[in-house]
Structure formats: C-alpha cells, structure tokens
Amino acid sequence: MQRKQVIFIADSLDNAHKFQQVLAGFDVDVAAGSSLQFKNLLATHPSCDLVIYEAQSDALANVATVEAALAEEGSAAMLVVVDQGLLAELRLPVQVKADFVMAGACADECAARIRQLLWPGNEASATDFITIDNMTINLATYQVKVAGEPLDLTYLEYALLAFLATHPGRTYSRDALLRRVWGFDYYGGSRTVDVHVRRVRAKLGPELAQRLETVRGVGYLWNS
Predict the structure, then answer these.
(1) Is 4 within 8 Å of 45 (Cβ atoms)?
(2) Please, what is the angle between helix 13-23 and helix 107-118, to 10°?
(3) Cβ atoms 24, 148 nearer than 8 A
(4) Is the overall model pTM greater than 0.70, yes or no?
(5) Average pLDDT, whole number, for the chain?
C-alpha cells in the first residue's frame, strides 16, 4: 500500500503521546503541531491524506474551519478527537470524509479508526502486527519498521523475514524456504536464500540480526 501523509494537531500532551505511539505502527509520515500551527502545516503538506484534530473547548468551533480548508485543498480525511463533555456540540464534517474518537479511547480503537480512514476496505487488525524488540512487521501493508524507521526491503527480503518471524523457533532448510517463500516455480539455486539472509541481517542491524540464526548443515531459524 502507498505510504500516507498525516497531519496531527493537538494541544494536550496526553493525546499527543498516545497518538504518537499509535501512528508509529502505520506506514505513514507524520507532521505534528498545535492548533495554531495547522494552517502552516497544511500549506507545507497540501496533499496530506488525513488530519487528526484534537477539539478542545473553543477548538471545537474550529472544526468547521478545518473542514473548509481540507475541502479546498484536496481530499484529505479528518479524524476529530473530542472530549466526552463536548460530544453533544460536535458536528462532524460533511464536505470531507470524517470520523471521531473520544479523547479517552484506547490505542486500539484510535488505530482502528485511522485504518478505516486511510485504507478503507483494507483495514488491518491487531493480528496483522508483529512486534519484536523495536521492530514492527505490518503483515497487511508489507512494511517493516525498526525504532519507528521503515526498512528498505525488497519484496522477497520482506517475505523471507516475515515468514521466519511468524514461525519462530523452527528450523527451515534452504529448499523448504525456497518452496515457502519463493514458490514452487522458482528454479534458481538454493544459495539465493543465503544471499537474501545476508541482506536482511545487514538491514536489521546487529541486535535484531542475531535472531536470524544459521543452523549449520540445515538452514535458518528465527529465535524469538
């Protein structure tokens, strides 16, 4: 899936911290700021895909202003973060695709609403994410991040890593990996597995690379 651009607007540290963690699990670039910085952020990122806007007290009246700006600039969706006490006053935007979430909602609910706005019809569930140390593998979007930074993996490098990481503690021979990752129609030599393992290790870095173990005379395993 295509990498998305998100603008996150919040004036409270609690929401900023929570959404920072939630967004770290997605294949997105994030530009964050306060409500006073919204116009500048939108001007800098006119083709953004989603604006997450925290509506607090008088900021609730600005939802319509944000909606108008988004409708004029492009097709960005909007997620409004609203306190329970202001819910009765909330009027969701109608000119752009929009949803809301309560300020006290759990991270999983926030993530689900973000997925629905960014990837409608292709929403990933919690089971689509594998977290190992500081690495996150998104099985729905075929993306891997280490310490929040995306890894530049080829499809086969990703497929090899994802397969081994989802089958930890089990040793696979080179021929088995060729069948499971490359497919039955692959006619190349089994040493191509070694080449891809070396590349994956180099990109993972020394700490994570230690988990991708060589079993002498047999093949490879992922040590969980």
Answers:
(1) no
(2) 60
(3) yes
(4) no
(5) 84
